[in-house]
Amino acid sequence: xxxVTQSQPEMSVQEAETVTLSCTYDTxxxxxxxxxxxxxxxxxxxxxxxxEAYKQQNATENRFSVNFQKAAKSFSLKISDSQLGDxxxxxCAYRRYNAGNNRKLIWGLGTSLAVNP
Amino acid sequence: NxxxxxxxxFQVLKTGQSMTLQCAQDMNHEYMSWYRxxxxxxxxxxxxxxxxxxxxxxEVPNGYNVSRSTTEDFPLRLLSAAPSQTSVYFCASTSxxxxxxxxxxxxxxxxx
Lengths: 117, 112
Fold this sequence. Notes:
The complex is a heterodimer.
Chain A: E1 3-5, E2 10-14, E3 19-21, E4 24-26, E5 32-39, E6 46-52, E7 60-61, E8 64-69, E9 74-79, E10 88-96, E11 106-107, E12 111-116
Parallel strand pairs in A: 2-12
Antiparallel strand pairs in A: 1-4, 3-9, 5-6, 5-10, 7-8, 8-9, 10-11, 10-12
Chain B: E1 4-7, E2 10-13, E3 19-25, E4 31-38, E5 42-51, E6 54-57, E7 64-66, E8 76-78, E9 87-94, E10 102-103, E11 107-111
Parallel strand pairs in B: 2-11
Antiparallel strand pairs in B: 1-3, 3-8, 4-5, 4-9, 5-6, 7-8, 9-10, 9-11
């Protein structure tokens, strides 16, 4: 069974600095999707970035980028120029590429990120 | 505004009461899901749907029912509320699960 592990329950970063959140996963599949979601205090889950496993290039969305290491089964999120609004819980998630009837996302337990002014 | 709308945002129930959590999306998404979020346990899938008239169970379906009579709506029914169902509930939808889901703002449910 697939699992997703976020080893850092809490992290903090100074405003304008860079922080990296870790995510590892376990799967025997070769094709899959990986996601990072942000959950601010408002509670709503917001998709930050996604990566398709068959793509070598790391995904980037403005200040957010990933370091996808397929062989190591690692999917870390880098936030550059951190802003106060980045303070949130961040969740890593996995989904099989051809899920068939197994359509669920596998979620990590989250990393709480604090941004210090 | 386009998106996923959940109502109510907060609810307190007594043990044994029933209620329906509403979820509606206006993006013509085929795929819809219900999750519950509990501290230390992450998000767990309750039920999901891949289109109108098609639903299936997730990992924690007991005590909940769903139906999908239209593409837009995917209500979640608690049959007989129990304290163990105290949680935050999220509805999510997508046209392509590989692209990620759009989530509603959640319902915080307390069962006393």
